[in-house]
Amino acid sequence: MPPSSPPRNAPPLACKRRNRAREPRATHRPVILPRRFYDRPTLTVARDLIGKVLVHETRRGLASGVIVEVEAYIGEDDPACHAAPGPTPRNAPLYGPPGIAYVYLNYGLHSLVNAVTEADGWPAAVLLRALEPADGIPLMARRRAGSAKRPSDLLVDDLCRGPGNLTKALGITLADNGLDLTGGALRIEDRTGPARPVAWSRRIGITVGVERQWRAIAADSPAVSRPRGRL
Fold first, then answer.
1. Which residues on adjacent β-strands are paired with residue 72?
2. Is residue 62 situated within a structural domain?
3. Tag placement on the chain: N or C end, fewer CB within 10 Å?
4. Is residue 26 part of a domain?
5. Is 11 inside a domain boundary?
6. Domain count of the fold of the chain
7. pTM over 0.70
8. Averaged in consecutive runs of 10 residues, what is the pLDDT profile of the chain (231 residues)?
């Protein structure tokens, strides 16, 4: 597990209800995470995002989920980070201010969403990999139904498992690239839910930089990715 203070570069009813969403109990009005939350070392932000709530409002409605799996990508010396080749038009949001959404198309198929971290000019971000669905579960199911043999094949905890499923369920697309996560339709909230136990492991779904244990999960969540072999 990384050190506690890591270095800077270090149809509606179609879903099966066997595993139900665990919506955090809000003791007061949700608070949108401010920019200073993201303006910190990336591994610290990654750890602290576990248990926060990603929200997306669209014309079709609001959908949200508790963040239970993330991965950190840090700097030009991280071979798995999009900043590895240096600044490009595609990775420009990584070099921008913290608290911005970096959305990109993965293998030409899936939009993936990241939260940009650290100081303006320093390329780093946290990839959001899985959520426990909270608000708008019927809407999420309708969006995801096309990827299942039948809508009833979808379990609640499967709706946002994996970064591509997450964005599909919440309706996040390339059009959301560069949005400010600290206010607006796409945002991350602190709903003061109970603290979640966090576990760290190697990043998954990549072929370089795999030795870095920069993947954080809520250890008690059934909604995290299920990589082959060990975590």
1. 126
2. yes
3. N
4. no
5. no
6. 1
7. yes
8. 45 45 55 98 98 97 98 98 96 97 90 97 98 97 74 82 97 98 97 92 95 97 74 31
